[in-house]
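REVIEWER CHECKLIST
Item 1: Sequence provided? yes
Item 2: Single chain? yes
Item 3: Sequence as submitted:
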Amino acid sequence: MVLRRIRGIHVQRRNKPEVLAPAGNLRGLKTAVDYGADAVYCGGKAFGMRSAPKNLSLEDFEEGSRYAHEHGARVYVTCNVLPRNSEVEAIRDYLGQLKDTGVDALIVSDFGVMMTAREVAPELELHVSTQAGVTNYGAARAFYELGAKRVVLAREMDLQAVRDIRARIPEDMDIECFVHGAMCMAFSGRCLFSNYLTGRDGNHGECAQPCRWKYSIVEEKRPGQYFPIEQTENGAYLFNSQDMNMLEHIDDLIDSGATSLKIEGRSKSAYYIAAMTNAYKTAVNQYMVERGFEDAEGNEIKPFHDMVIRPGDPDFANAAPDNIEHNADKAFAGVPDAEDGQAAPQVNTVHCANIGNADDGNLSYHARSTRRKSNTAAEILPEGWHHAAVRPAPHVELPDWLKEEPYKVAHRDYSTGFYYPQRKVTQRTDRAGYFRSWLVVGEALSWSPDEGGRLTMMSRNKIEPGQQVEFLLAGEPPLAYIVPDSGLRDADGNPVAAINNPAHVFSIPCPHNVPANTAIRSRTKQATLKAE
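Item 4: Structure as written out by the authors:
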C-alpha cells in the first residue's frame, strides 16, 4: 500500500477498487466516510459543476479532510468548470487556498486550470473530469504526461472501451467510471440547453435540468394549440434519461480495469449517500473475497489486479472474445442494426491492405460508410488492431438484500448506462418523477442498555407501534425491527402513542445496540412517483 503523509496523518491509498461517494455538504462527507467510502468528491463554493448543493467552505474542507484521513479515506474537490476569461485569476487564487486545507486531489476538465493547478498546488493529485470527454487511450496517455493521476471516462463508453484504455495506459494511472445515479442527455454532460432556455449555465453548476421537462409541439398555423409528442394525457418527456445502476455488474467493471467506482449525487440526501455508498462498498468487498484477493476479514491474500490482458502479455492476440467484446462499439460508435442480443461485427483482427489502392469512388464510399457505421468498421481499421480481452472469471453473485438496496432510495427507472450496448439506455418519455417506496423515518442519536435497551432518535417521519423499520448498518445487511406496542417516549420522557413530529427527539425500546447516526427507514404504505 502507498502511504501519503498529510498534516501528520498517514493516509492509505488502497491497492483495491475505490468506492467514490458524493457529498454536497460536510454532513454528507462524514456520512459517506462512515458508510465505507474510500474517497469522497465534493465541490467548493465556486468553480464546480453543481451549485444546487450547499457545497463546502474552505473551513469545511479542512474539517472534512481531517475526518476522512482519520478514517483512512480521501477527499477530492471538483474544479471542473470551463472558466471564462474573468475567472482565470480567481481560479488561481482559489486553488492556492485549497491546497492548504488537506484535500487530496482536484478534479479538473479545462487544460488551463490543469496547468494552473500544477503550478500553484503541485502536491495535489490531478483527476481529469468526465467533462473533458476522454474516450480513448491516446487522450488518457496525453493527460498522464501532463501530470494527471486519473481520468474519469466519458459516460458514453462501453465496457470494451474501458478494457482497451486500461490495456494501453500506464499501470499507475487510475480509471474512474460512473456506476450509479442520474445520467445526462448531453455528451459527457456538456449541454447548453439550460443556458439557452433559462439563462442558468449548466457549465457553472446551475443546470435547470430542462432535459427532464415535459414537452409538447405547436403547429405553425395553430398558435396556442399544444400537441403532445406522444399520445399520452400528460405530454412527453423527450430527453428524460434513466438512472444508472451497475451494482449487480460490479465484477464486469472491475475486471475491465476500472479502479474507481463513482456514485453520482452531490445534490442527494445524506440517506442516499449512506445507502448507495454502503451498497457499493459491500459489493466491492464481496468481489475481493470471491476473486481471492482478500479473506472474509479483509486481509490481503494476494495483490489486487484487474483481469485485462495487456498487449505485452503472451496470450494477448490469442485470447478468446467474450460477450462484451462481441457487442463492442454498438452504442458510442453507432453500429447500425445492432439489436438486443445480436453480436456486433467482429473486429478483433482486421486486414485493410486494399484501402490504400482504392479508387476515388471507393474512397467516397468509405467516407460515407464511416459516417453511417462505426468508426472502427473493418474497412478503416489499421491492420492488426486487437480489442483487449479479459481473463475469464465466474460472475460475482450478490445477496438479494444487497441487490434490493438501489430500490430503497428515490430513483428513476434504472439502466446499465452505455456499458452494455446490447442493453441500450433509453429515456422514459411518459413520466419524469422519482419512485419512492421507502422513507427515512429517523436517525439514531444514541443507544443505552437501560431497561433492556433504549434507542434515542431524531424523527423524520411518522413511526407508530407495530410498524416495521430497518436500521441501515455499515457493511452489514439492514436490521429489521418491529416497533413495540408501548414504550415510545418524547424528549422529556413522557409516553406518546406514536412518533409524529418531524425533527423532534424521541426514544423507543430497542434491544439492538444501534450506532449513532444510523439511518432508520420504513417502507411506504404505497409507492409514489414524485418530481424532485
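Item 5: Key structural point noted by reviewer: Residues 270-290 form the longest helix (21 residues).
Item 6: Recommendation: ____
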